[in-house]
Amino acid sequence: MKGFRFDESRPLVKAAARKGKLEMEYLQLGNGEILLIREAEKEDASRIVDYTNQVGKETDNLTFGEDGYGISAEMEASYIESFSKIDNRLMLCAFIDGNLVGHLSFTGGVRPRTRHAGEFGITVLKQHWGKGIGTQLLNYLIAWAKQGRIIRKINLKVRSDNQRAIRLYQKAGFVASGTNTREFCIAGKFYDSVAMGLEID
Description:
With 201 residues, the protein is α+β, with helices and mostly antiparallel strands. It has a domain at 18-151: Gcn5-related N-acetyltransferase (GNAT) (Aminopeptidase, 3-Layer(aba) Sandwich), CATH 3.40.630. The protein has helices at 45-58, 73-84, 133-148, 163-171, and strands spanning 18-19, 22-23, 25-28, 34-39, 89-96, 99-108, 117-124, 153-159, 175-186, 189-199. The chain is globular.
């Protein structure tokens, strides 16, 4: 997306450098650490696979667990490449000191009548929870959607007992639209999910 720029009110530490379709963004977190957010690249594939397998061990709020996501680095690289070529998809990586600490993936609809809407998921390494990384990834997604004028609805599903995440989404303007019963089955126990959405105008 040529000419993409963030709102100048966002706490940029220094001017972003061009990198692919989007720009890298450096932000200073509340604890003084510098967070880099950028679009995923094929070279990140191995790190993303290792990262994903790690976060699967750290929380039961995902669709996969400690056994990992079950894809190879080669498959992930192909996945990243496909995302970079489609204008209603976005994959982001968040780094601190060169280490991958957060990830966001947004997928828009494939048909003309649904390509304006899509669903996303966010993960953050447990040791970095509470630093605002999820918030910054979400802000980036919303800014991308607003300035791109392609995505008009951002959807998500979250476990109904994950109040921390629900508060994050509500703060960003997402509104609950319903409950999906028995969405997750973990260790033989069922959990509901809440569907939430944000209209982009």
